TrEMBL record:
This protein's record includes keyword Ribonucleoprotein: yes
Organism: Leptospirillum ferrooxidans (strain C2-3)
UniProt KW keywords: Ribonucleoprotein, Ribosomal protein
GO cellular component: cytosolic large ribosomal subunit
Protein's name according to its UniProt entry: 50S ribosomal protein L30
UniProt keyword annotation of Ribonucleoprotein present: yes
Domain Large ribosomal subunit protein uL30-like ferredoxin-like fold: 9-58
One Pfam family cited in the UniProt record for this chain: Ribosomal_L30
Subunit organization: Part of the 50S ribosomal subunit.
Length: 63
């Protein structure tokens, strides 16, 4: 019936040095500030949009 939401494990694979300010703000909003830092977030359309914007800097796994 009502499935529990999935969690996403998001890892910052590249540094934020030299990226546009908009991209940096999106990464910081997700909770990523250092390379190889990993955060867990609930799979939600808002988070999916953020992931789409910084997909070239991160790696995403479902947990």
């Amino acid at each position: 019936m009502n499935n529990p939401p999935q969690n996403l494990e998001i890892t910052l694979k590249r540094s934020l040095i030299g990226v546009p300010l908009k991209v940096k703000k999106v990464a910081l909003a997700i909770g990523l500030s250092k390379p190889n830092q990993t955060v867990t977030r609930v799979d939600h359309p808002t988070i999916q949009g953020m992931i789409f914007k910084i997909q070239h800097l991160i790696e995403v796994k479902t947990v």
